[in-house]
Design goal:
Among the domains are: 1-152, Alpha Horseshoe (Serine Threonine Protein Phosphatase 5, Tetratricopeptide repeat), CATH 1.25.40; 524-579, no CATH class. The chain has helices at residues 3-16, 50-64, 68-82, 85-97, 101-114, 119-131, 135-147, 154-161, 166-182, 187-199, 203-216, 221-233, 237-250, 255-265, 270-283, 288-300, 304-317, 321-334, 338-345, 354-367, 371-384, 389-402, 406-419, 424-436, 440-453, 458-470, 475-488, 493-505, 509-522, 526-538, 542-555, 560-577. 75% of the residues lie in helices and 0% in strands. Helix 7 (135-147) packs parallel to helix 9 (166-182) and helix 14 (255-265) runs antiparallel to helix 15. The termini are far apart. The chain is mainly α. It is globular and about 100 Å long. It is built from 32 helices and no strands.
Length: 579
């Protein structure tokens, strides 16, 4: 028998196969994945046009060669051209296998159109619609599966809707309420309702529903996991841990339960969390998420050698490599293995961790006294990633300032503004440097430009008001600006500090003291300590002022603002006490 005949035979079998969702009590929770069963009957086959047959034959050979993109493309094309249920089923399953969600949605919707009574088609379409953030359509298809006693997964639809806008979630919740009128004891619907309530911070109501589910079905382990999350959200971690430990003891092979138990333990008992993750990793030795969690736990608990081992194992999987390199870079830097740290950080590609890694590379160069290397590195990044150019200019300016080269940093920012005119972050940073250099005209010009372009930029509004107050100039204007900023960002400690300081400059000691005490309680920064200490001193609370100043100096022993205030006020007091 030749290979072509074998391929044709294989193709015929593939196209004749069909799958059905097993029917069972819809009240039982099901797996989050589509389950296909062994074919129970053959689909009636019909001849295909020559071109269609050729495309399908190519697709089948492509699957054998693991050329899945070609195979999927051909199957999708022929699913639409032939409108054959077998071809469409094959296309859907292959798209799911490849996690090609858009293709799987397309194929599954055609499958439903061709076989509306096929419960697997309805279930798959619901699943793919949920993944593609179309929860109401997904709910319709899953409800049809429920009506026909098929295996359902309503919770997956609810979970997929959690990041969506509130009106969409509310509409979905209405859909679940309508179904609950028909199926009041369906635990999947009840869990889904609880998930949506949890997202709305109606945690107690969600917990009541979940506990009804558990009372109705004590073996519903999904409900147990949700219950633990709700208890943790309510600030009752001990209760959550007790409940999970009991369930883990009863179901020691359930990985989902043990994983949730381990995650909550990370906030209360790192050693016990480590034990639980080690149990899980023995069962799934190459799971990248488990390896990462276990590596981080070992790092945070001081087991550095074990952490490095798990991070290296993670690298070997080829997944989560960015996180592995980042943490390995941290470990190497902490051990002053600068070359190794640089090697790890430099292997992090552009993405969420790239800027943080770049910052650490610059820090290593500065640690070694190689400012020129740091500047050259950042210059190269600006050329390589022009869309991130502002970020790299700001990193370079920060590096220069850390080395006391404020004038060079100021010049660099002016150069950056030629390339990115009017950029708020560049203007704001230059304005702060202008203040340090005594160039108040340019400082005010930059801040005024930001405020004109963005009237709701509370940071710039506050900065301008604070600088005016600090110079003891145009105090009424400063007061107006700072009050405008606090309206935009109520409770912001930096603005509360400014509000306290401008009231002090205006001679309003009582409100000044109140605002500064609020700011210091939220953010005990040395500069806030300097201001609060000064107002305390001026209200005659000398000992309390000294206590606040000492606290500030413990955080930053060389803080010039505190030292200046202490010297000025104590010297003034000593001079006043002389006969």
């Amino acid at each position: 028998m030749n290979n072509t005949y074998l391929a044709i035979a294989a193709l015929s079998l593939a196209l004749a196969a069909c799958s059905n969702v097993s029917t069972k009590d819809g009240n039982k929770p099901s797996s989050t994945e589509t389950k296909s069963t062994t074919p129970t009957a053959e689909i009636a086959t019909r001849p295909f046009p020559d071109q269609s047959f050729y495309d399908l034959l190519v697709a089948e050979f492509a699957v054998r060669r693991s050329d899945y993109d070609l195979a999927l493309g051909n199957y999708l094309k022929q699913a639409h051209q032939t409108r054959d249920a077998g071809v469409t089923t094959r296309a859907t399953h292959l798209a799911q296998f490849l996690n090609a969600d858009k293709a799987a949605l397309d194929a599954s919707q055609l499958w439903v159109e061709l076989e509306p009574d096929n419960l697997e088609a309805q279930y798959t379409s619901a699943t793919m619609l949920a993944k593609n953030q179309r929860p109401m359509e997904a709910l319709h298809h899953m409800a049809l599966v429920l009506e026909n006693n098929g295996s359902t997964n309503f919770a997956a639809i609810a979970a997929s809707a959690l990041p969506l806008p509130e009106p969409t979630r509310n509409e979905l919740e209405g859909g679940y309420d309508a179904l609950l009128l028909q199926y009041p004891d369906n635990t999947q619907l009840m869990i889904s309702k609880a998930l949506l309530l949890q997202q709305r911070d109606e945690t107690e109501q969600a917990l009541d529903i979940i506990r009804k589910v558990i009372k109705q079905d004590p073996d519903d382990l999904h409900a147990v996991v949700v219950e633990a999350r709700l208890l943790q959200q309510l600030g009752r971690p001990e209760e959550a841990l007790s409940r999970l430990k009991q369930s883990v003891d009863q179901h020691p092979d359930n990985r989902r339960l043990r994983l949730q138990y381990a995650r909550i333990l990370m906030t209360t008992d790192i050693a016990l969390a480590r034990e639980q993750f080690e149990i899980l990793i023995r069962e799934i030795p190459n799971d990248p998420d488990l390896l990462l969690s276990l590596a981080i736990i070992n790092k945070e608990s001081g087991h550095i050698a074990e952490a490095e081992l798990y991070f290296q194992r993670l690298l070997a999987t080829g997944q989560r490599t960015t996180e592995a390199h980042y943490y390995l870079g941290q470990i190497a830097a902490e051990q002053q293995q600068w070359s190794l740290a640089l090697d790890h950080y430099q292997q992090i590609p552009m993405g969420p961790d790239f800027i943080a890694a770049s910052n650490r590379i610059v820090a290593i160069y500065l640690q070694q006294g190689e400012l020129d290397k740091a500047r050259h590195y950042l210059s190269q990044l600006r050329q390589q990633y022009p869309e991130q150019g502002v970020t790299f200019y700001l990193l370079e300016a920060q590096a220069l300032m850390s080395q006391g080269q404020d004038d060079t940093a100021h010049q660099l920012l002016s150069e950056a503004l030629l390339a990115y005119p009017g950029h708020e972050d560049l203007l704001y940073t230059r304005s702060m440097l202008s203040e340090k250099r005594g160039d108040y005209r340019l400082m005010e010009q930059d801040l005024a430009y930001i405020i004109k372009q963005n009237p709701n930029n509370a940071t710039a509004i506050n900065a301008l008001g604070y600088v005016l107050a600090n110079q003891n100039q145009r105090l009424d204007e400063a007061y107006t600006l700072i009050n405008r900023a606090i309206t935009l960002k109520p409770g912001d400690p930096a603005i509360l500090d400014s509000l306290g300081w401008v009231n002090y400059r205006l001679g309003k000691l009582e409100p000044a003291l109140g605002y500064l005490q609020q700011a210091y309680a939220i953010f005990p920064d040395p500069e806030v300590a300097a201001h609060l200490g000064e107002v305390l001193w001026q209200t005659g609370q000398h000992e309390q002022a000294r206590i606040i100043w000492r606290q500030g100096l413990q955080r930053e022993p060389d803080n010039a603002i505190i030292l200046e205030a202490m010297q000025r006020l104590t010297d003034s007091n000593n001079a006043a006490s002389k006969p």
